Amino acid sequence: MTLMRGLVLVALFALAACATPYVQMPGQQDLPPRLFLDPQTDIGSVRVSDGASLPIQRWASKGTKSPRAVIIGLHGFNDYRNTFDAAGQWWADRGMTTYAFDQRGFGAGPGPGIWPGQALLVDDLESVVTAVRNQHPDTPIFLHGNSMGGAVVLLALATHDPASSLATVAGASLTAPAVWGGAAMNPFYRLSLWIAAHTVPAQRVTGRGLGILPSDNIEMLRALGRDPLVIKETRIDALYGLVGLMGAAQRAAGEVQGPLLVLYGAKDGIIPRRPTARMAARMVSSSRFAVYPDGYHMLLRDLQAQVVWRDVSAWIADVAAPLPSGAEVPGTNLFGVEERS
Hints:
Layout: H1 2-16, E1 34-37, E2 43-47, E3 53-59, E4 69-74, H2 85-92, E5 96-101, H3 118-135, E6 141-146, H4 148-159, E7 171-175, H5 187-197, E8 204-205, H6 218-226, E9 234-235, H7 236-252, E10 260-265, H8 273-282, E11 287-292, H9 305-317, E12 328-329, H10 336-340
Helix pairs in contact: 3-4, 4-7, 5-7
């Protein structure tokens, strides 16, 4: 039996030598980031530092000459800027302007379905912040990361150069940040994914049959199923890249300074509670946390989404004020007695 296991391992590692996970490469240009928006539709693109063009959309504040705050939204894995459609409109009615862009590898961005790598995701975010800052030089800018977008925000804020535009960000809110990676993931899952990513990296998988409900907003989920910009089949190497990003975000959580608001749904079936609690325990004292008893993974689009939008809006207005929902919990004990047991 020991010999057989050894032969299987030799065969697997021999296969691993035949393939490697594919990651997008950055362009060779070095250009100043720039925003291009159609003033009629508020849809356009942002040119990032390596010359790539990322689709971007704006929901401009209403009733004021200038917004009281600007939010830059980062969507989750296999999703795109449409994540912020309803939230952006709601925030616009309350005097805030939201920008959301398709991250590289997703939506209508470059190389949809191909993992862009952690460095490119962070560099692109810095470029977007620079371009938006040029449009709003005197307005506080907040980041909002959803799921994978939350992981990108954590990593970017923990690792950015002090001279970069990310240093001007006033704070960040995160819904269901993706931090289920590295030591937080079952070692068997990690090994299996590593083998698959190094043997059949282009193989595609779906989440069908897992029995996970990401939201209680069924009509919204059906619409996503019909949306051609939502990726339905995921390359194994993209999934491998995501797990690496989640692990990096988990490790980076304790290095992020400045105001942070972390929002989590108690019915989240995508990002488990324990890595979320581990992340919270690492964060600095200026971080705040809310757990919504009826919330799912897609908090920004659940049936109770307005509760979340309102909390984010109130926190941006005053990062120390109580949240309107009353859902705030201490970061040292996100899930009460159940998590201590």
